[in-house]
Fold each of these.
Amino acid sequence: MSFAKTTVFVARILAAAMLSLAAPGAAVAGSIFLTGHDPDYHASLGGNLTGAQNINNAAINFVTDPLFNPFTFGGVNKFLFVESAILVPGGHTNGVNGIIASGHIAGTDFEHHTASTLNAQLNLLGTKYNAIVVASDFGGILTAAELNILNARSADIIAFLNAGGGIYAMAESNSQAQLTTGATRFGFLPFVVTSTQFNQTEVGITVTPFGVSLGLTNADVNGNFSHNIFTGIGELAAVDIDQSGNVLTIAGRAQISIPEPGSIALLSTALLALAFGLRRRRS
């Protein structure tokens, strides 16, 4: 290929790469709710069942609100619930029970999928599902098998969010039975920075004004246990904080402009092609 043709080829690749890296329009924003609580467990087991159920419902209502979620508005009314179906280890429970205890009907309001079917179901975001709900890894039974798939499909999840979809994910601490060993916590949303596990009794936790606007109260976020804190929250807002000022829950609606792996690879290819063309011209 001549230098001139190489230059045109590279220019086209760079243009495509820059278009794919550009931030999407701000007209639609994904709804995100991430918490260090494990209300999937405590909605059916624990000292404050009502509070945990209220957290679940506030989160699910937030990420599926038809005023902000175009898929819900268009008639897509199921969410995808992600959790394993392993034999439940001590200290854990089937988190799906907490979703049901919060008033959501399996098969009607949501479908529960494990690692064996998760990849196929993620292909149906926006057509079958208006949101993703991810179980906790303690006391729910999310495992590395599910979390690794979510992390690997991060670009697809972000594209879904940028189209107006929603996601609600509960505590990922790898505590107790260590079900998510080796998997990156909340890696499907790489702009979120979390601490290592931070297990604490829910005492003295305070809901922020933003949390109050979501329908939560201090009574909802105290009385059980929580398992991680957020040390970086990006464009999201704190929903509740502990006695030391650590952020336990974050939420918000935003476009996510992180480059996808495919875009980075495309840009790299363009740069390599450009270098190759220049080298040939000089030789």
Amino acid sequence: MIHQKRIAVVVPCFNEERQILRVIESMPIQVDAIVIIDDASTDGTVNVVEKASQRDPRITLLRHSVNQGVGAAIASGYKFARDQNYEIAVVMAGDGQMAPEDFVPVVDPVARGEVDYAKGNRLVTHGAFKQMPTSRFLGNAVLSLLTKIASGYWHIADSQSGYTALGRTALHTIDWDIMYKRYGQPNDLLVRLNVYNFRVRDIPMPPVYGQGEVSKMKKRKVVFTLSWLLVKLFLWRLKEKYVVRDFHPLVFFWALAFLLFPASLALLLRLIYFWSVNGNLPAMTALAFGFCFISAMQSTCFALLFDMEANRHLR
């Protein structure tokens, strides 16, 4: 417990036979339950966990009959924590990349009731660029920027961090059955938390690599898949938060931007065509392109500014 709050740690696992025992043995004493979700591992992960559970009564093993993805494993753990009435659910990966000493800093603001969701942020710590693999650091930075826009939490970064703590109210509010099932789960969750106006905070922590972990993520595929997911989540959030549940005039600015950007592209293509064929630019077309593009940019900036102000209190 921390501040009299019962804590369940959710540990999603897939083929973590070499790492999971060290994760279990280093689990902080404040943890009341260790919920390990085996996502249909094909190695000896289950055997290792079952043996460890004989020594540590806090362990509960949940097993998926087929591999569903890390998001689905986390959702199963969240539902267990919700149904067992734990006040806080913490996610720690089964590959040993989450330091036990960061546990209290992540959990404390949620236990105190200051925020509803706290997450690690490895990008702001000194030397993070050198400690993280370059491709992962750059990919994470790009996805973090897109997640800021999609989620409305402009003060957060390192959206792919899996070291998180979720409070009881949010745990009972989110529909975990519709949560994205794979690597986009943290992004999906942030968007849904914003729709319900939950408070979110980043907790700076150093990245942990070189613990024998093996990445199962195909980076190029994940970046493109998550980018498309974030576009859909962004549009869903605009509808749910600013049209269905309440109304905000920023939807007019976004609507204008969505209309003017395609018009600008069409006019630009017309300009390129006339330049390549006739060697000159039609004055009216150039003027119309300039007007549409500048108006689209202004509408986008106003919409982003309104969104930032509307969510400033969710820190």
Amino acid sequence: MVRHLRVQFPGAIYHITVRGNRRNMIFGDDVDFRKFLEKFEAAFDQFHIRLYLFRLLKNHFHLLAETPIANLSAFMSKLLSGYCIYYNRRYHHSGHVTQGRYGAKLVEGDEYLSKLSRSVHLNPVQTRQAKRWIRRIALTS
């Protein structure tokens, strides 16, 4: 199946999502989080990305970022390759750490931006509530 080209233009704001391969964890402990944040900071500085918010969870992460010079692909390549190399060396793995391509949806309009911000901030809470709800159903069945 053909992959569509990413829409990139100066000043674009994206909701970026990355999930662990087969929904596995991509952050095993605080050391992994710190290493990712180091790579994250270096890539942001190099590519002049404007970060509005981010949420790192054990098996995925969300970014809300603006690309003043239309370089999202280069930024994500640097970030994800650097982290993948670190992760595979640390855990003696090979291959992909993340599942497929990263998601990058254009954010258009203040209303969508506001809803997206709430959703990303509440993601861990919603996930825990969903797990509790699923467990409750399993116990009563």
Amino acid sequence: MSATCAPVSVDFINPFLNSAITVFRTMLGCELQRGKPYLADSVQPKHEISGVIGLSGKAIGTVVLSLEGPVALKVAEAMLGEAQTELSGDVVDAIGEVTNMIAGSAKAQLEHLNMSVSLPSVIMGRDHKVAFPGDIRPIAIPFDSEWGPVCVQVGLREQVD
């Protein structure tokens, strides 16, 4: 492997961007406004809670849904139909499920890559880190919403035979 980072193709990013917008709109009733995507320079997600899913197949990588605690509470409230006041197991499950829906929808749009999606993991706490596979430098897609900021990071590259 080279010392430089593998570029992440826009063709790989757009399905995740579109999926995040669609999942938040249809499943949660929340509109996301996309900010300017940027090359993430750290393995540290922008916000305190991260839903993480690994992808494998003809492409490998990781997808991270990153949000602040108050946004996570609103996500869980929208999914569960009742107000959430603390970062409980139900909130963790809701973030994992939303991350799974975003990755699953994007995977369907990238059918030619024949990818498998791992079970979601949720990491909580300030300054946590998420490692992307070896030479992949993720693209971060920030969003604003009525609930607060959300960020989707995608680090994905095609496998070389």
